Amino acid sequence: MLTDIEIAQQAQPEPIVKIAAKLGIADDELELYGKYKAKLTEELIQKTAADQDGKLILVTAINPTPAGEGKTTTSVGLGDALSKMGKKTVIALREPSLGPVFGIKGGAAGGGYAQVIPMEDINLHFTGDMHAITSANNLLCAMLDNHIQQGNALKIDVKRILIKRCLDMNDRELRNIVAGLGGRVNGVPREDGFIITVASEVMAILCLASDIDDLKERLGKILIAYSTEGTPIYAKDIQANGAMTALLKDAVKPNLVQTLEGTPALMHGGPFANIAHGCNSVRATKLGLKLADYCITEAGFGSDLGAEKFFDIKCRKAGLKPSAVVVVATVRALKYNGGVPKTELGTENLDALKKGIVNLGVHIDNMQKFGVPVVVAINRFGADTDAELSYIENYCKERGADFALSEVFANGGNGGIELAKKVIAAAEHPSDFQPIYSDELSIKEKINAIATKIYGADGVVYTTAANKALADIEKLDTAKLPVCIAKTQYSLSDDPQLLGKPTDFTITVRDVRLSNGAGFVVVYTGDIMIMPGLPKVPAAEKIDVDSNGKITGLF
Length: 555
Prior knowledge:
Helix 4 (71-84) packs across helix 18 and helix 7 crosses helix 8. By secondary structure, this protein is of the alpha/beta class. It contains 20 helices and 25 strands. 35% of the residues lie in helices and 20% in strands. It is globular. The strands form six sheets. Strands 1, 2, 3, 4, 5, 6, 14, 15, 16, 17, 18 and 19 form a twelve-stranded mixed β-sheet that branches. It has a four-stranded mixed β-sheet with strand order 20-22-23-21. The two termini are 13 Å apart.
């Protein structure tokens, strides 16, 4: 059996100019990065701004398990299936972070015969967007520390600095550090730390900005510190946002690539969904809607994280209205939720399936609360039995959700035709989309709405530190901002060990931070980390390159 990278390396991609032509994009509306990658110009975005929108389809999933769900694979395969059916389709995905690529989770280009290519480039550097975001963030940090070093005219309190440096890599050693050692000329000693680039506010801003002017304004609004007198200090106060925008002038442009079957794919931005808002850029999604009849996008991890933030943050801020949502699940993952060890998931076990399927039920119910038609896609594995699949299908029908098998991993677009037909039908139904909470609620009321309505919690508990941080935030102009909850992806609760459908639990908020430029309040729950670490055996140990530049071991 071929690995993902071997399948990708056997493909014969079309020149990106031909892929662009499928969407009516002219050669001079591309900025080429070699033969198979390109950025799309501002002129194209402006030219298509008044065009009619296609239908927006969100792909999400149940809570992830070690058994795998295949959300990105399903997104790519669904796009290929729609293309095979003669539908003008574009896929809008996030860019991979090097953290998971070299860690344990993997990339973000799909798998099997439902992949986006060039797979190696996409997973390793791509068009440099991640590095530009890292540089812009760290320039801000350097300018802040330099301001303090050069006399500190703004009276910045070194104990109340909010911005952290970032790195697009899993590196637990950098979570908490002491900086500025070595004497007066080397800075002011203080506690500091790094976060992973995809959790940075600069990443969130890039993904939510409407254009370069909006990007610059948002960057200027980043709350970086407080003065010794309690005055908030923003990036614009140290005149950092102009230079930051200069570093991001190309990164803000969406990237165009293709699937193995030649379906156009826009890959742009990559915020994690467990610690950020988990969606690709607004610019890429909006452009995809102008260029095609169907725009297939995804939101990270389970629907309790990615989809909730897609609806409550991205759609709210960008005025998007999804036509349908696909919830991806596997028989294996549902049995895992029912208590079956990973080593025994290939054996039929209806009792465990019945116990674990409640997790799927919650995700169906939650998506329906947003007023969007739901289709459940079962990413089929060879060991799945007819009895197990039949049980899931009946379960879905009882909950008013359509159901389709997906075999796109093994068969590409041909394996997604049934799913595509169900999605087309669902998208024709009226979408009564609405966020789960009102802008007018307080921050705590918004947190409580998500915790009780989406997670199923009994309520929310706040630490002393969280209450203090919230009090500081509420003194600023933040009343109507949405909330972005950082939570474990493995459970509907904030405890990763509570699988299935947890009951009788509360959500503990340990800290709250304002992402003023992004336009939301970040809420940290449980033990969630904003700088992951590498596993005992990182994926990086298996990745290599030969003398001809051919990469191996990349999934």
